[in-house]
Queue: 4 jobs
Job 1
Amino acid sequence: MALINENYLKLKAGYLFPEIGRRVREYTQANPDKKVIRMGIGDVTQPLVPSVLKAFHEGVEELGNATTFKGYGPEQGYDFLREAIAVNDYQARGVDIKADDIFVSDGSKCDTGNIQEIFGQNNKIAICDPVYPVYADTTVMSGKTGVCLDNGYFEGIIYMPCTDDNGFVPELPSERPDLIFLCFPNNPTGTVASKEVLKKWVDYAIANKSVILYDAAYEAFITDESIPHSIYEIEGAKKVAIEFRSFSKTAGFTGTRCAFTVIPEELVAYDSNGQAHPVKPLWTRRHTTKFNGVSYPVQKAAAAIYTEQGRKEVKEVIAYYLENARIMRESLTKAGYMVYGGVNAPYVWVKTKNGMKSWDFFDKLLNEANVVGTPGSGFGPSGEGYFRFSAFADRDNVYDAMERIKNLTF
Ligand code: MLT
């Protein structure tokens, strides 16, 4: 008799974004004449920039030529990309990360989900609330939790509420976690962490022999000079943090797929006898066993963002999305909403009106304004009463959506 992984039965509904997709599909099928504007899932709308596209084409051409053809590539990624990442994303900011610390992959969603595999089953996991649902759902799938309680929390996870009161930045938990998921710039609230905040977390992780799983997928949207782009800008972080980065939002690779995870040599975790072990060899073993690398043309395309021209083009696209966010913040504020985020991040986080529940607001917005966003409660119980708008949209749609929202009556 084949037995299922019963941890999957603990998961409540479907994954958040397919659920939104299902509701939107239902609505559009019933109302084919309505123009629905999608600002739900953070999916890019601008095309790949010319430098990236050119490199992508060249990579494909090379595969069609016997002298330049490539089969399996190195599982951790081609040296040219790992080197470009180490030099441009880290060494240029005074951070000593080497190409060898970088593992190129097909997405940060996969990496943040898979990373728990190299850590023991008895680890206590801390996550923010609200949070990118992947961290919580994959913790449940891995069997480290009990059931989902009435308050929406899973037994066994340490939740760190991020609310208006603490500026959506988590406080140190009272119970000691072993693995701590942090995401800055934050999905969904759009908040950032200052050097002081990150230092507090790094010191805490060092003192408690914990590991920080730092999701920096949105670092390219940081506009404030004083905000760290990498957790490794904090002294001591290489001993206690794994960093996840992605080309998805940075360079429009949501469909193309390319990301990377950084595991420095110094990072250790412990066996049941308290003996320290470097973590990097474990992830190397996992990655080389279960993954065969990102395709060559995609890695070549990703490397193009580190050329002078590529960098300039990608920056323009990011500025376009950030201008969307600015327009959204301004319009929503004028329309009487409390608005957060959207300055150093592509997400604008708003409080619903009249204490409306997030999913009720979602339905009202879809039915009456034909605009799709993401209900805050889908990111966790503390997101109830909030709503997330994604700035990854075409400008005309942004104006249109803001006008429709302004005209909503309550
Ligand atoms: C989001 O909308 O939260 C993201 O697009 C999801 C993701 O990156 O997987």
Job 2
Amino acid sequence: MLKLAAGMARLGTESAFEVLARATKLKEAGRDIINLGIGQPDFPTPPNIVEAAVKALRDGHHGYTPANGIRPLREAVAEDMWNRRGVQIDPDRIVIVPGGKVTMFMAIAMFGEPGAEILYPDPGFPIYRSLIEWTGAKAVPIALHESKGYAFSAEEVLAQITPRTRLLIVNSPANPTGGVVPREELDKLVDGLRAHPHVAVLSDEIYARIVYDGVPHASMTAYPELEDRLILLDGWSKTYAMTGWRLGWGVWPKHLVEHATRLAINTHSCVNAATQWAGIEALKGPQDAVEAMVQAFDRRRKVIVEELNRIPGFRCPMPGGAFYAFPNITGTGRDARTLQDELLEKAGVAVVSGTSFGIYGEGYLRFSYAASTEAIQEACARIRAHLGRNT
Ligand code: PLP
């Protein structure tokens, strides 16, 4: 018998992938399934970015690169950080990684161990809790509130900090809720963090470019007092429809860069070279494809929220960012997992139960609106019809 390390039993997963697998199976069996379960843009990567990767391969960029990423890419990220967030970042504080998830892994691996506590948003991206528990640290959920547009209360977060707290994870705009934390709430949080200098912060801003209604994205990098303990997670996956390329960046405090780079050397060595060159084109090339994509998401956002609010038993606030709607479904009399399964099996609509994102996700479903308007309308019509027949 092989004996696995104890941490393996504590690793979780992303249920969205399980729903996707079940939906695919049903599709293969001939069922007509509308998939609103997946968390990736339904657009192709813009062609200028694809061409840059092809050119890099033709130009002979086939070898290892520095573990923290090629210098011109880190410079392009620094320039982007200046243009979009108004912060001056030394390119040597930037670590290029294969996807935003890897910055998350590095930060949690760096601070998590038995006896430590890490605060994470709930409902939130399921990998936060999974990785925290894998390290043996205690995962402490921060409740997000529907009544606050799925933001946290800074006061509640600060009250959960103990001498054992090592890391606080913040995600805005958020998966799975589409919630955006208002700048005033961040101000309060950062102000309160002065009293807790032992706490590092991981700000997951992977959806920073997907925001609506002209409200500018409030970045945690705007607070110079956090510079020595803030890790910024961002990347190309969502902004440039590049989820399959595996490319992300972290901005690290100076004293942690060496540790992040060492983790890279011990795991993936570097991101494949051609993808890094494509990343430069993405940041420095024309941005009209990004703008068009966000405008399309915005139109669908309005459609889906209106449609969801027409379903008896559903109540859905307007999300401020990302491409998810997170309706409260308690009025249907079902729990979230039951309704998820029922909608997939009986209505042919794949969505994800809020409980896949944490204990505070009970009573909610996640709908991804990275799908056509027709698919969104048809999905909601099917749900209405299904619930009409079964209430
Ligand atoms: N952070 C959040 C909140 C996400 O939703 C995702 C992907 O779904 C990631 C990070 C990971 O992004 P990537 O695909 O670049 O690893």
Job 3
Amino acid sequence: MSVPTLTPIPSMSEQRSTVRCASCGATLDDRTARATCPNCGGLLAVEHVAPKAKGAALRALFDERLGAASYRGSAADRSGVWRFRELVLPAARPEEIVSHPEGNTPLVAREAVASFAGLDALRLKHEGHNPSASFKDRGMTAALTQARRIGARAVACASTGNTSASLAAYAAQAGIPAFVLVPEGRVSTGKLAQTLAYGAHMIRLRGDFDDCLELAREASEQLGIYLVNSLNPFRVEGQKTIVLELLQQLGWESPDWIALPAGNLGNTAAFGKALREAHALGLIDRVPRLLAVQAAGAAPFAAGFSDDFATRRRVRAETAATAIRIGDPASWDRAVDAIRFTQGHVVAVSDAEIFAAKRVVDACGVGCEPASAASVAGVRTLVDRGIIGRDERVVSVLTGHLLKDPDAALAARVAGGLGSEEPLTRDEALGHLERVLSSSSSR
Ligand code: F0G
């Protein structure tokens, strides 16, 4: 399979980045095939040479690419990830980039959701509008680009569904064989279908996500398969662009809070790194606070927050929000740094609160998967507790699409009387229509 070649990007620098271990400080070349430190197994982080332009000039460069994207910009400019390439992977050559394109997701406001959360206004950054229907595509375009740069023989990940579909899509485009490990019986049929349709090899493991990740790490060590879970530092670089893009959409005016669902903590880590860099480069002059929201049955990070992360916690995870059903988050240290740097907050919400938020997000025609609704439920909880003021400016990130978990949406709506439970005859259907119309006009 051939890889599409992007048009040359004159401003793309040949400047190499450094990959550094956050635990032991070892440094690696930016063409490393390692997803974790070869010395100590610690998490790696990518550091770029600072772009020449800073502050207003850098904002202008990103804005110009956005403006040019629709008609004369390069393929990289059309991507909501590679538009920010100086902060993603500046040394990637145009022909190495594996891009759908992705990103460019909408920032929407719906009064019903704001009033549910107890706020005057609330914006929703909808990452379900990415090509494989979740935010994972932003990290995956960077990880598969890196896989091409190092000549990976195969790529692998453990997944609760979204990562597997995203990996399968980008591996197909790159022409690299892909293996995904998913926990048995816990992944939405839609995501399994998507993953297989894109041509990835799928292994359903007896165990949970944490077991899958442990096996994926072991298999990648033993078989030399490139691991692209969110502990992979290049995934983090791509995921940073959720924050960069939403700041750009707000005219580079920081909101007061950015809320997101938190499971394996890759995204929390990426958001913290994005804000640290955006602030250091003068893209923004004030750092928004991060709110990481966990499901109460899978909340080791929220428990850690309550004692200032004195110890690293692990739990056996249980929640109907399958995407964040994770008990031993891999990016713990990086996420702690993100919460501390942004003076952020971590909160746990019950499944009932998640589904209440989801019903409101769905009913206003926006819709999201259960885990994503945690970012709205968490805001409501903090407004209730007086930690977020009702006039503060908040962005909740909806990480995935409503169709990830259609059964959850269907069950809630049929139970609420919106759908007929059984198929009806023609006459019964007419009677049903009349009843629904007269009850809604009498309201
Ligand atoms: N929201 C959605 C829709 C997700 O799919 C995930 C993670 C998260 C939030 C949590 O993000 O792990 O970076 O804290 N899904 C992974 C997967 C685990 O395999 O698709 P995180």
Job 4
Amino acid sequence: MQPIQEVLPLLQTPRKIFITTHHKPDGDAVGSILALHHYLTAKGHKVTPVVTSEIPDFLMWLDGADDVLNFETQAEQVEKCLANAELIFCLDFNHFSRTKFLEAQLNASTQPKVLIDHHLFPADVWNYGVSNTAKSSTCEMVYDFINQCGDNHLINKSIAECIYTGTMTDTGSFRFPVTTPAVHLMVADLLGKGLNHSKVHEEVYDSWSEKRMQFLGYVLLEKMEIFPQYKAGLISLSRKDLKLFDVTTGDLEGLVNYPTSIANIRFATMITERADEMKLSFRSKGDFDVNDFARKYFNGGGHFNASGGRSTSSFIDTVTYFKQILSDIHPR
Ligand code: 5GP
Ligand code: MN
């Protein structure tokens, strides 16, 4: 992969650009593709932002969210745009399989591909790009990219809101260790460009339905198990649990973090039964490497303190297997 600066000559003339991100997009995924979309559009390019599953409701207020194509419902349009694109930007993921439905098309595509990402161990499939695990978020990296292009003056309120949203959600509201001085300097700059940070926090965190709040109560009371001997907590949610409160994927955002708010709990896991597989989310505080854990046991990956994985076993078997691993490895 050549450094991202090497792609700049290709951007000197207007291009058709395809931008995508990982399946089940989160704040950083949606924030980064929209920020880059607005920036490249301002530079005169024809940009198509694409997701492979629905954008959660708490992000739909972001400028441009309505323009994003969803492969699940607009496959034909997406395939046409991909075929016509001259350049493909991949944001916030490190392996084509993370897009789920676009993996085969991205593998088959011959256009130059550009990576902007902060996950560990990117696949060797991109022509240009930047992969930096020390960065708080892909949104911060899009900010860096715009600055590298000498275009800080093009960052307007919309772009600032997108960048702030992804950085805020990926850093747990600026509390995780990846929140460097550079992040705070960036936020200061974004505030100067019209960002209303209180509005973003309200849109993202204070937009719950009553049902979702009740669901949280149910989960914490009935579905969370704490294993003090392993400094670990587990939330396991079957499809039946999700149906009880009409829960959508967006409603599960942040749930995995709750066990780590208990004193001495340093490793949290959430197992969710999806239609086709079991989804696992891992979070840790301190020096327990959940990227390694997800890779080793659940065919996944991510970051040192936040990762995900999957299992094709049944829900019950996955929960049992997880508990078996816990007692085998004794995380501390
Ligand atoms: P989440 O639990 O929120 O789905 O994922 C936590 C972090 O790990 C996110 O940064 C996400 O992109 C990443 N992640 C989740 N699942 C996988 C996976 O299967 N492979 C890799 N490489 N990263 C993952
Ligand atoms: Mn991210």
